Fold this sequence. Notes:
Largest sheet: 6 strands, mixed
Oligomer: single chain
Number of domains: 2
Structural class: alpha/beta
CATH topology of the largest domain: D-Maltodextrin-Binding Protein, domain 2
Amino acid sequence: MFKRFFLTGLLLVAMGSTAWAQRTITFASDCTWPPMEMISEARECVGFGPDLVKAMAHAGGFEAVIQNTAWDGIFAGLAAGRYDVISSSVSITEERKNAMDFSDPYFEVKQGVVVRDGSPIASEADLAGKSIGAQIGTTGYFAAMRIAGNNAKSYDEVGLAITDLANGRLDAVIADDAVAADYALTNPDFSRNLHLAFLIEPDEPEYLGFAVKKGDTETLNLINAALAAVRSSGEYDLIYKKWFGRE
């Protein structure tokens, strides 16, 4: 009798382990934020973020599905349960922590200012009275609002703001430094006419994190454990070097 119960117990544990390992976690990403998240020619979401998510899925024993989701509704979708995690270069802020829970930080950012070649803008003081574009609801847009007030213009996608800048309809664009550098330094459509003028020095460090629904500790713990495993294995450094050319 004891042997039967013992074997049954082992079977239940094994089934439970299999079920956990096969869990599917859906990550929402606004894939318009190169090189962090962007759409490839094969219409897949690629970039630093997706590569990190895939590595975490392998380390954490779960299946990751990346769902391309427009930024303007991404937080509402998380609250409504349309996906499990937001992996979309979300800055961890005190205001956002009131509405959702965050993983451990996985990336530090500053806000970069992109201008046209020949522009006299070289410091934050030079932005006074200038028209500044940024993606709506981002920390770049919050910075633009602080600096320019009514001269700040919001866009659904940062690429639209960059296009308006290149065409002379804006004086500057503010975005995460990795994104700003990508458009200004490597993008073939813009790098010939735009440049990264400077970085805005924050009062406090700004970090990106994975966002989960408030109170979803199960998913949060799994994400944090997977992130820690990717860091300790050295794979995080390899992914970083792939997209930014350095560790």
